[in-house]
Amino acid sequence: MPAHDVLIIGAGLAGQRAALAAAEAGATVAIMSKVHPVRSHSNAAAGGINAALNPEDSWESHAFDTVKGSDYLGDQDAIEVMCREAPGEVLWLEHRGVTFHRNPEGKLGTRAFGGASAARTYYVADITGQALLHVLYEQLMKVHEQVDRYEEWFVTALVQDDAGECCGAVARSIRDGAMELFSAKAVILASGGAGQCYKPTTNALICTGDGIAQAYRIGAPLMDMEMVQYHPTTLAGNGILITEGARGEGAHLYNAEGERFMERYAPNKVELASRDVVSRAEQTEINEGRGFPDGTVALDITKVPRKRTLEALREIVNIGRDFAGVDITREPIHIRPGCHYIMGGVKTDIWGATSIPGLYAAGEVACVSVHGGNRLGANSLLDTLIFGRRSGEHAAERAQGMAMPRAAAVSLRAEQAAVDEIIRREGGRGRIRRISEIKDELGTMMNEKVAVFRDEDGLRQAHATIRRLKEEASVAAIDDRGTIFNQDVLGAIELGYMLDCAECIVIGALERRESRGAQFRLDFPQRNDDEWLKHITLSVNGGGPPTVSYSPVTMTQWEPQERTY
Ligand SMILES: Cc1cc2nc3c(=O)[nH]c(=O)nc-3n(C[C@H](O)[C@H](O)[C@H](O)COP(=O)(O)OP(=O)(O)OC[C@H]3O[C@@H](n4cnc5c(N)ncnc54)[C@H](O)[C@@H]3O)c2cc1C
Fold this sequence. Notes:
The chain is an alpha/beta fold. It is built from 16 helices and 21 strands. It has helices at 13-24, 59-69, 76-95, 128-142, 210-217, 245-248, 262-265, 275-287, 306-312, 314-324, 380-399, 409-424, 435-449, 456-473, 487-511, 529-532; strands at 3-9, 29-33, 49-50, 110-111, 121-122, 147-151, 153-160, 166-173, 179-189, 222-223, 228-234, 252-254, 297-300, 333-342, 345-347, 359-361, 366-367, 453-454, 520-521, 534-541, 544-552. The relative contact order is 0.17. The model has no long low-confidence stretch (mean pLDDT 97). The chain binds flavin-adenine dinucleotide.
């Protein structure tokens, strides 16, 4: 049985940063990913990473913008840590080879991003995530004697010992279907977000909430799950992202009447208000009949000098041409708000520790909570790196001087039996549905009823649909019964994770009877600090809907204020 001090599940930015930190602290490390590490979803990150690095800027200003952006639901101790440590992290990346954009004086250059009071976003054209991920992967190669890489291995469950401590995981090799039990003194979940609960979404097919559901299933509470970010600029139909970098570089938004409508909603920041504010404004324009017939508004990137667009936004030039048939340097492109990011996740402290000893979480899978009700653009890459590193360090420290636990073989047998049961299911009879059909229904329904605007009726209907889909998923049949690259069986397992995540999103949204950040309740349109300035935490409750409880928001120096941009 493979055994390592620290087992990291996920090899995106959070996982790779955690692996480097744990290895540097002397631990033996395993890093595991269901896709090749550089195909992790972090690769898609476009616009950049925030840090108050300029002498005229300050970490306090970055922190205040983040607190305000979160609609005061972010935990201020965690936000302070992230913003204080941001400049050092960006320099660390630069020194390891990330080719951040430099301005004409040869200094690191920045671009403006939404909700920020200074231009503090560092970037590599509009492929920042790819640039970071490849540099971290090179660094992992250097420590190959300490870090074992399990590429194209799919974790199906976390394992606990008799005392309830997390001591490993069960995984399936995607290449040949072999199941294996891994023991570890500490496990770090870095398995990313759950955007595939929605259709369309900006998220890749692999973002199916696996780690969120796996932690939830063994009793780790989830927090802020109702807070799902809709990004203001996604292509209608396929959900592909047009980076906020476009507005950062000067693009404007117009309705079908040619009005630059953000001037009405956010007179100071206009298009660079925070994402929840811009998405709501766009959806209001569309709902009130001032959008285009395809349910969109227009993003006009021709405001940005063409040369600059071709240099700094070249990826969205390609996206516009290939996926919308539009030359964005010459004409506006139609966009709409689309599901993009989950602010909620596995509840952790500022070292990434969850409530289960031995289990850590970092990156989009986690909720530390630095984003609260709404994440500022370019704060997520930062979150993955800061809390990835911190959890790597803490997990390595825990491992020191501790004996290697032995994960019990019974967990392996149970997971093998669960996979065998899916493979044996008979299809084609009665009302038995395909996995893809159930997934489509889930995503489309979530995008209708649990989107920018929500209300009790819609949320109750959403919950009833999820309960039905859970039953259908438990008997849904697959076609591939083989062992080599059987994505069919993995799809069935992922659907179960998505349904758990979706149920938690809906229960959190029903519970929060107010409007804050990304959660806008038409039936409770005001923010209500007296009753709802608190986190909603959700815990597993057998096979039923989750148990709801609350935890306080940590305040350090910023009292809630009215939020205007
Ligand atoms: C299009 C797009 C653009 C973005 N641009 C920006 C930006 O410019 N700036 C910014 O700050 N943020 C941006 N974001 C958000 C940011 O990219 C993500 O939040 C962040 O990269 C998530 O990183 P992560 O390490 O937590 O997870 P990921 O990069 O998603 O990695 C998850 C890892 O877990 C593995 N995994 C998952 N499940 C399993 C399993 N069952 N078994 C084994 N392995 C598993 C995956 O294979 C993968 O290696 C963007 C998001 C999108 C969708």
